[in-house]
């Protein structure tokens, strides 16, 4: 920035220590740690001090908005505004709408998103919303593979070769283990039947290995974010395997990088199908945009659902079913995916098209 731009930008900011100046604001965005009670307290205070027309927004990445606004009488003006890190690079803005949120609040946030040069999508309300929920199996699948004998670095390299900017373990180091544990607990509480319960991150956290910020996580760090493999994680991996009862699978170690990427991303497709089936995302193309602009999915593959359709629902379903038999229900195909596979429909097909096909079958 030039000095003039810097001074002008900084002059627009005003720091305060109380809510006195909040009585004239039009939009309040809360962005604190993923702590439900703290967020509920802040929203109760915002409701008390902000004008009645003020939109009350939260930058939570996982917590259900109904829970956050539980202690207010302002659910009609509570929305989620989920920015993706690093915010200066990732252009996605996920606007979360609850059934009680007013259309005006959503339209206003769409306008704000465009003004700040983001790419906004509107999604429904649930734990993790559309994007983080869709991608929570990304790291989970990687942890499962490690428990069954695969190296951390090999999995990350396979994902980079696939086209991701960084792999799941490097990403976890970047966001920090505290965030990973907090979001992981939200998924465990809400989707216990399909969360892979690895102890690897908790074990490392106990020894104050918390990611890049502590210079030790799945990798060790020296200088400017330079990550290098760390032999010390072997003992944590062995202990995690012991606790989970998993043993290294010799056949798994023979697969190539392309097959590793499929084992990591097919569960992501499976969860994306649930997100579509539940109406959290309104169309498959929203998830394509979100996967590229929010999670760094390789643009040349067209987005997560476009890539899935290039493979075909039947093959994805077949592979997930095989892995379910071998490694457990984490890989179990969801009903939305099973239906598309049985009917030979694209995963991006609308619910209307599916219902029409079912009606033809009955005739």
TrEMBL record:
Pfam families: 3HCDH, 3HCDH_N
Reaction it catalyzes: a (3S)-3-hydroxyacyl-CoA = a (2E)-enoyl-CoA + H2O; a 4-saturated-(3S)-3-hydroxyacyl-CoA = a (3E)-enoyl-CoA + H2O
PROSITE patterns per record: 3HCDH
Keywords: Isomerase, Lyase, Multifunctional enzyme, Oxidoreductase
GO molecular function: (3S)-3-hydroxyacyl-CoA dehydrogenase (NAD+) activity; enoyl-CoA hydratase activity; isomerase activity; NAD+ binding
Entry-linked PANTHER family: 3-HYDROXYACYL-COA DEHYDROGENASE (PTHR23309:SF47), 3-HYDROXYACYL-COA DEHYROGENASE (PTHR23309)
Name of the protein this chain belongs to: 3-hydroxyacyl-CoA dehydrogenase
Native source species: Aegilops tauschii subsp. strangulata
């Amino acid at each position: 920035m030039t000095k003039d731009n810097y001074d002008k930008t900084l002059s627009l900011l005003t720091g305060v220590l109380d809510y006195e100046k909040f009585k004239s604001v039009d939009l309040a965005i809360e962005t604190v740690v993923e702590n439900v009670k703290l967020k509920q307290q802040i929203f109760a205070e915002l409701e008390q001090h902000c004008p009645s027309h003020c939109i009350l927004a939260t930058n939570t990445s996982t917590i259900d908005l109904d829970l956050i606004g539980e202690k207010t009488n302002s659910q009609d003006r509570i929305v989620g505004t989920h920015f993706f890190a690093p915010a200066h690079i990732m252009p996605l803005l996920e606007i979360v709408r609850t059934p009680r949120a007013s259309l005006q609040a959503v339209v206003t946030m769409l306008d704000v998103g465009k003004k700040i040069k983001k790419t906004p999508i509107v999604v429904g309300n649930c734990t993790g919303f559309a994007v983080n929920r869709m991608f929570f199996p990304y790291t989970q699948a990687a942890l499962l593979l490690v428990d069954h004998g695969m190296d951390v670095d090999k999995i990350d390299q396979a994902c980079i070769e696939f086209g991701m900017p960084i792999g799941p373990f490097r990403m976890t180091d970047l966001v920090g283990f505290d965030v990973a544990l907090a979001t992981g607990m939200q998924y465990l509480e809400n989707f216990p039947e399909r969360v892979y319960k690895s102890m690897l991150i908790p074990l490392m956290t106990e020894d104050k290995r918390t990611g890049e910020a502590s210079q030790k996580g799945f990798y060790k760090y020296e200088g400017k974010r330079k990550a290098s493999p760390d032999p010390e994680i072997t003992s944590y991996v062995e202990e995690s395997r012991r606790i989970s009862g998993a043993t290294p699978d010799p056949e798994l170690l023979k697969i190539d990088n392309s097959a590793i990427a499929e084992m990591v991303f097919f569960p992501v497709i499976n969860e994306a199908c649930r997100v579509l089936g539940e109406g959290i995302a309104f169309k498959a193309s929203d998830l394509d945009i979100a996967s590229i602009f929010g999670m760094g999915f390789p643009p040349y593959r067209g987005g997560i659902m476009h890539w899935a359709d290039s493979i075909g629902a039947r093959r994805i379903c077949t592979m997930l079913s095989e892995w379910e038999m071998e490694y457990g229900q984490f890989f179990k195909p969801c009903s939305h995916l099973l239906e598309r596979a049985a009917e030979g429909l694209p995963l991006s097909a609308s619910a209307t098209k599916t219902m029409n096909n079912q009606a033809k079958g009955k005739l």
